[in-house]
Every structure is written in structure tokens, then in C-alpha cells.
Amino acid sequence: MPADRLGGADDPGPIRSEPGSLLEHVVVAVFGIDGEDRVCYWGPGAQNLFGHEAGSVLTRPAAVLFPEPAPGDGPGDGPGDAPGGGSGTAAHLAERARTLGYWRVRLPALHRDGSVFDCGFRVFPMTGASGASVVIGLASRGDELDRVKTNLSFLDALFETCPIGLVMLDEELRYVHLNQALADMDGIPLDAHLGRRMADIMITSDGGEYQRMLRSVAQEGRTVIGTLVGLRTPGHPDRDQVRSVSFFPLSGAGDTRRGVGGLLLDVTDREQAILEATAARQRLALLDRAAARIGTTLDLNTTARELVGAVVPEFCDASVVELVEWMDENEAFDPTLPVTTRRIAYGTTLPEPAVELVSGLEEVTYPPGSNIHQMLSTGRPVCFTVDEDFATRTVVHQERAQLLLESGLTCILMAPLIARGTVQGIAMFGRSAARPAFAEEDLGLAGELASRAALCLDNARLYGRVRDIALTLQRALLPSAPAAGPYVDISHRYLPGSRGTEVGGDWYDAITLPDDRVALVVGDVMGHGVPAAAAMGRLRITAKTLARHTAEPAALIEELDACAQEAGIEWATFLYLLYDPHTGRARIANAGHPPPLVRHRDGTVHAVGDVLGVPLGVGGVPYRSVEIEIPEGATVALYTDGLVEARGQDIDTGIDALRDQLRAPLGSLEEGADRILANLLPDTATDDTVLVLARISAVPGRSPGTGTGPPRRASS
After folding, report:
1. Segment 67-95, tens digit of pLDDT
2. How far apart are CA 553 and CA 699, in angstroms?
3. Does residue 18 carry a pLDDT above 50?
4. Which of 70, 352, 359, 672 is the most exposed place for a label (fewest CB within 10 A)?
């Protein structure tokens, strides 16, 4: 092993590996000691470690590499129990190598600049071609060895005990190294991974996006941190997993190839908890919104549509609400009989034929033993998969059953609408394959939605009954065809308020009296519902009776006011007009009611408004009447405030609008009444409305009047 080949002053520095290798961080010095304990080989790393150039150290005693013992140290106290002094240390090092064949030891070493440093030595004998024995030594700084040993120990412990999955992949994304935690995560033995591609183990359904991400790390040097990946593995084929993955590129070292390192953490439970918490918050938010949207009116159909609007598309893809048509609500449910329902609301986001499925029928019949019967028997929400059996048991007609199977719905949740112990109807919610099937939590949500909607529907149903009773009572008490005699032609209209409001106490009448006289009456009782209708009926009958025995309108109103006070009726307006066709004059008394309007044949219209009195039931205020002349062919309009009063509009503005309508040609009274109502009333009137048009005719031989003339007070 000639020295001139083993090192020299012109040799490069310490031996370095390719970037990323272990030797890049730990310098290894190589030197040789001959049989006389002299340096016979000096590598580049030795020059870097000890500071001596090859030319200055070759053939010199190896003692130059070791410090002298400290003063006071005796023989045998040197490093490694070697004889004292640098020469003793060098001789001892060579002797142990020849004796043991391989020896490693930590010894103080001496740098050329005189500094002493801790050094790790590996020595072993070698025999050259000439037969001479040489001790080869490998040396590195002790602190660098300690650092590397610590790092390696940490990596070993990390791969053996870390609960996070660790993996090394080659450039082809094949497993090169992994820890047991990842093997357990995959459900596949560790050795069974090696050499296989990651795509064979981590099976995703993302269209290859995960593999493209890994290739970008291997080929482009990208770093991926904390990306969530959904997958299954051959070891757990029936278990969906969510992993948080981080990948980074690995540099090649020596003749090794580049690759990918990764950390994988199973976060399935965490993500599931997050998903469940998010779903719970969404369900609560849906309930809050539904509570605000459902029951804004007391109309059955509107309430049902509000329920459908609250759940489609947020909760389901299709929904219907049906009311059960019970023969007798008090009769117990019989599962052996068909159930007939009336569909009052529906909605879907799916295309045909789902639209036809939910909207094609108004009356639905479910045969005995259907899923509807099962739901009504338990009184709890139930969920079904849409299949042949479900369609056959639920739908009577085969074509409708086929429509259900082709609708795109994969599962249907049914919830009974029960309020105050009575089944009002059923609500159905359907989902397509684009959504997850209904879970147990969805049953609870549907039950809560149905419970709230059922209470609102029952309130609407009960209100509808009360309203129907009041309306029936009112219509029964109103004149069906008031006869006004030969000289007064009458057209009358009564319109109750919209479905969302209660019946009021509006009323009217035309009373024929002796000598061809006619009394026109209109009134309005404050309040709504049955009490207002009953009060209206009492006042109408009393007024009709008083009209036959009381000639003076003011006296009639005073008597009617006394009757109202005795009956506890407060704030009822009333207008009484008594017309005599023989004189062409009329006497009018008013108890707080809007004034009548008189239309002349030339289209001029004026109001008789100076006879306003206080409403009935107030008491303590005298009433008066006035007398006016009504010319031949004039039309008198009586009405209630529902025609001329609206929210945000002054009543005088409404009376002016009615005056404008009367100025137009009326044609027949029937046509005129319809036109006036159509032009003045909104589509959803909030109050009852009465309109009476009376066209005046003269008794033959009576001289024609020139107008109403100034009103003349008849009495007070």
C-alpha cells in the first residue's frame, strides 16, 4: 500500500458523499499504521480531521495523533488503559487491532494546532500483497458520532413505536419502508407492502386525484401537508377511512433513487365526529327556520306548502303533505281498511317523472297493509327503501307504481301529522341516490318537523271550522234576496274577508213597508267570528222589527242603541235610509257608518254626510235624521268600510275612489256591482265587504225632482 498513492499534499479535502448521505454530515478519517507504529497511509479525511498534511505525517510515529498524559498520570492511566503518552496510546491501539481483529474505542486525539478532541476509532489489521501487516484506522469526531447515533436511535424508535403511519416510497410509488402503525392501519402485514404500489393498498374513488398528487411530489418535488383522503384498503374492505396525509420528496444518496416520504394519520373518528356535529347543527338550523316559516297563516294549504318549502331541497329532494279523509275522527284506526288522503302540497327538485309523481294526484288511496298503514299504526316516522316490494304495497295503480320506481327516489321517510291526539295527515320526504340515505337522526328531525306542522295544521283546521260556522251563521242571517218593492231596484254583494281572516259582522237589509216605502239598512259590528255574526243577527232582526213600528229613523236608531246596550254590543255602526216613492224624498239616520253616495243619471255623485252619529252601544248621545230628495233614476250606494278602507290609506281616499267608480256608466246594477268590487278590492281582502246599489223609480204621475236639494232635518 504505497504512500504516494494513498495521499498527498495535492489531494482534495475530506471524502464527501452525494448530498443527503450520512457521510455528508460525518467526516471519516482513514489512516494506516505499520509494524513499527508509524503512519503509513494518510487519507484526505485524516488530513481534515487531524490537520496534518500527508507529506508531514507519513513515516512519522503514530504517537503524533495522541496527546501526552496530564501531569501526575502514571503508567497505565492513559486513554483506554494504554501505556502513558502518545506513543503508548498508538502502540496500544495497534496491538488491540492485531490481537482482536477489530476494535473500537473512544480516545482523546490531538489536532495539529494543539487542541485535543474526543474521537471515535475503529481499527483492524490488513495484510498487503507483500505479506506485511498494516493496521487500518477509521476515525471520526466523537460529537458528530453522538449526534448521528442520537438521530438514528430516534428514527428507529419512531418507526417502531410512533402511532402515526410512516412510509418511504420509491419513484414508482412502491413501498420501500414503513412502520407497523401503517401496516395495522391498512390491515395488511408489513412485509406484504414491500414492492407493491401504494395504489394497490390505498384504494380511493377520487378519479385518480390522490395518485396524481403523489406523482407530483415524486416528480416535481412538491410538499403536501395535512390533505384529507377518503379510502378503503384490501385489509379492511368494508370500512371507509379518512386519513390526513403529508408527503415530501426524498433526495437520492449514492446510487439510491429519489422517492417520497410520508406521514399518514387515521382521522376517521375525528372527521366522523365533525360530520355528525355539523349535521346536528344543520338539523337544528333547519328546525329554527321551519319554526319561523311554518304556520304564518291559519290556512291549511298555505301551512302545508310552508312545510314542503322548508324541507326541499335542504332536507330532501321531494316532499308531499296529505290530509287523511277520516269518516269519523273519533273512530279508531282500522288497518284492514283503505286509507284515503287528499294531497294539498308537494314539491321536488328532481326532473320528470318525479314531478308527475308528486303532482299528478289530488286524492290518494292506500290499500290495507300498505306502508302508510304501518306508519299510522305505530304513530312514529318510518323509512323505506324504494323497490318493487315498496311500490307494490304502497301504490294501488301499476302505472303509478312504475312512476315511483323511475322517479329517481331511492328512499322515502314517512311521518304522521299528529296534533292533540288526532292524526291530521302524513308528510313524506324522499331522497335520490345523490344524497345519503336517511339516518336515525333524520327520523327524529322529520318527527319534529311533522309535529310542529301538525299543530299548525290543526290550528288552521280548527280555525277553518270556526270560520265556517261564523260564515254559515252570517249568511243564514243575511237576506238571500231582499225585496225592495216596485219602485226600488236592488243589487247587493257580501264578500267575506280572505281565508286567513275571521268573518266580520257586516250586514245589510232591504225592508218593504206600507205605502210602498222601502228601508235600506247597512251595518257593521266590531269584531270577528261567531260573536260578531251573532251580534249582527240580533241587530238585523231587531232593526227589521223596529222598522215596521217606528216611522222616524232617528227614533229607530235610539231604540236599537238601547237594545245594543242591553245585549252588551259595543261599537256597531248602522245606517238607516227610509225612502217614500210617492214624495221622492228619503229620511236618513246614521250611527257612525260611512255616508251613502247618491249617483244622478248625469253621472254626478255626492255624499250625504252631515248626519253622522256615534256608533250603537255607546249610549248617552241623541241621534238625528235628515230628509233629502232623490231624483228619478238616481242610484244610492250603501257600503261598509271593507270597501273603502285599507291599511295605509285614509278612508276619505277610499270614498273618493268609490265615487269615481260610480261616475262611470253603471249599466245594469249587477254589472256595476261586480265592476266596483273588482276594481276596488285587493285579491286578499282583510275585511268583510258589503255593497248595496239601489236604483230609485218614481210613482207614476209624480212631478220629477230637480235634485236632492238641501238636506232638511226631520228630527233630532
Report:
1. 987 665 544 444 444 455 667 899 999 99
2. 22
3. no
4. 70
Burial of 405 (0-12, 13-18, 19+ CB in 10 A): middle
Cβ-contact 214, 198 below 8 angstroms: yes
Do the beta carbons of residue 144 and residue 119 sit within 8 Å? no
Nearest-angstrom CA–CA distance, 121 and 140: 7
Taking the CB of residue 513, how many other CB atoms lie within 10 A of it? 15
Q: In what order do the strands lie in the sheet with 133-141?
A: 39-42, 29-33, 133-141, 116-127, 103-110
pLDDT in tens, 483-498: 677 899 999 998 876 5
3-class DSSP state of 163: coil
Grid cell for residue 461: 283546521
C-beta separation of 257 from 224 below 8 A = no
Residues 6+ apart with CB under 8 A from 678: none
User: Which three-class secondary structure state does DSSP give residue 432?
Assistant: strand
257 and 171 Cβ atoms separated by less than 8 Å = yes
Residue 361 to residue 230: CA distance in whole angstroms: 43
Query: Using CA of residue 84, residue 90, residue 94, residue 100, what is the dihedral sign?
Result: positive
Question: Does residue 77 or residue 304 have the better pLDDT?
Answer: 304
For the stretch 545-564, what's the b/e string if a residue is b when 16 or more beta carbons lie within 10 angstroms of its beta carbon?
Answer: ebbeebeebbebbbbbbebb
What is the spatial distance between Cα 482 and Cα 511, in angstroms, rounded to a whole number? 7
Question: How far is the C-alpha of 506 from the C-alpha of 474, rounded, in Å?
Answer: 9
> Where is 577: in which H helix or E strand?
strand 572-580
Query: What count of other Cβ atoms lies within 10 Å of the Cβ of residue 605?
Result: 18
Nearest 5°: the CA angle 373, 379, 380 is 105
What is the mean predicted confidence (pLDDT) over 133-142? Answer: 90
Which amino acid would we find at residue 554? Answer: A
Q: Which single residue is written with the C-alpha cell 412502491?
A: 174
Residue whose entry in the numeric block shows the C-alpha cell 260611512: 594
Statement: residue 702 has pLDDT above 70: no
Q: 15 and 24 in contact (C-beta within 8 Å)?
A: no
Ordered DSSP codes for 378-403:
HTS-EEEE-SHHHHHHH-SSHHHHHH
Tell me: the pLDDT tens digits for 115-136?
Answer: 999 999 999 998 867 777 899 9
Q: Tell me which residue has cell 355528525.
A: 276
Per DSSP, 646 falls in state B
> What is the C-alpha separation between 703 and 582, in angstroms, rounded?
10
Taking the C-alpha atoms of residue 153 and residue 160, their distance in angstroms, rounded to an integer, is 11
Give me 288's grid cell: 329554527
